[in-house]
Amino acid sequence: MHTGSDFAGPFKVTLTRGRGIRSTKAYVCIFVCLTTRAVHIELVGDLSTAGFMGAFKRFISRRGPVSKLYSDNGTNYVGAKRILSELHELLTRKYYNSEFAHILAENRIEWSLNVPAASHFGRNWETNIKSLKSHLYRVIGDQILSFEELSTVLAQIECVMNSRPLCRTLSSDPSEPLALTPAHFLNLKPLKYLPAIDMDENKLSIFARHKLLDRLVQSFWKRWRMEYLHKLQSRQKWNITSEPLTVGTVVVLTKENTPPLHWPLGFVKEVFPGSDG
């Protein structure tokens, strides 16, 4: 398995919930499979070799062995703002690089500090990482969550991203289109999502914290889903010929207020060509 990795953060967290508890920093370690485009997210307490290796061990324990690991130790962080300076310092630290490389070598894992040569590999990795990080910063921002709460939010966001349709696959019912998702490669079946508490309620209750977490996940879902659907629409140059829609083509339907993990699909039943073909 060829995998890309990156960091995001810092985010403010507390070890437990309660008044007067001081917050600390936590970081998000992101892994992306360069073949299936599946995303795996781990929360780490600090930017250290031990912190990253703990996240990496949890990753391969649940997802399987890695043959090659890609990480960008400079180009994404050169000229970064102050909030990313610690990430840049970690990834360019000689001690971090030498110790990490030694551990990977013992496990026969090849480590590369450059973006994969194949353009589609590098593009998929960078697109997923960039999208996840940008929406995380927008949705969570300066919100202070407990370490457990942020872990829960990240697990649900991981589930959301791995539910996205990649292409059509065979279905037992020809009238019901089925899309292949990263989750199929991880679990051999689509992912499930616990229904959220109604977010239209304005009054807080004993479920206030659960509502807050659901609101964060739903906000991420709405933002990220619209961005993903927008990217699915081909934007070819006028001098490039693209394949026209044909009867039987599976399409993703855009509907408002679609719940997380739900990607309504449909078939093209009839085509009405325009004057330009």
Automatic annotation (TrEMBL):
PROSITE patterns: INTEGRASE (PS50994). Pfam families: DUF5641 (PF18701), rve (PF00665). Signal peptide: none annotated. Residues 1-182 form the Integrase catalytic domain. InterPro entries: DUF5641, Integrase_cat-core. GO terms for biological process: DNA integration. It comes from the Eukaryota. PANTHER family: GAG-LIKE PROTEIN, PHD-TYPE DOMAIN-CONTAINING PROTEIN. This is (apollo) hypothetical protein. It comes from Parnassius apollo (Apollo butterfly).
